[in-house]
């Protein structure tokens, strides 16, 4: 009688299934590790990009005055003094500022204008006062805006606007370092004697590129 072959047909498929299951398990683990690594690297690179990306400077109106504003002859030839604080919010990036030109408006009428600050360098995480003194050219008794101006001075609140024009350049190598023209726009009110109203002290100014 011929010898019977061992009945092991069922073991080979089971062993193959175990090997396949183990391979799928390792493949899933490898995919999970790869996805986790990519996600962590992406978050790290994004955080690094945010830390290195230049942030715009911040400006706020600290002081403004036109002494003797309530005199009968108006504001003509009166000194216009102001201080605008510049803050560089960047951690490691400096900012080069060109000279500043200042303009003061009353109801969109230019009443004072001229250069105010020479070029300077804004250090990272530092404040720099931008101080200027101009000479007012109005309003005077012959101006169309004179009646309204006198009424606002008498009421103790005169609305003005200070505009500073300049160009700036970031001190950084990894990003765009071309010059940017910027305009600082401060809206505020002064009292009848020409001093800045308290609620506008250190008020933020708008910055437009």
From TrEMBL:
Principal place of residence: membrane
Cited InterPro entries: LEA_2, NDR1-like
Localization annotation: Membrane
One GO BP annotation of this record: defense response to other organism
Late embryogenesis abundant protein LEA-2 subgroup domain location: 83-186
PANTHER family to which the protein is assigned, alphabetical: OS05G0367900 PROTEIN, OS07G0531500 PROTEIN
Protein name from the UniProt record: Late embryogenesis abundant protein LEA-2 subgroup domain-containing protein
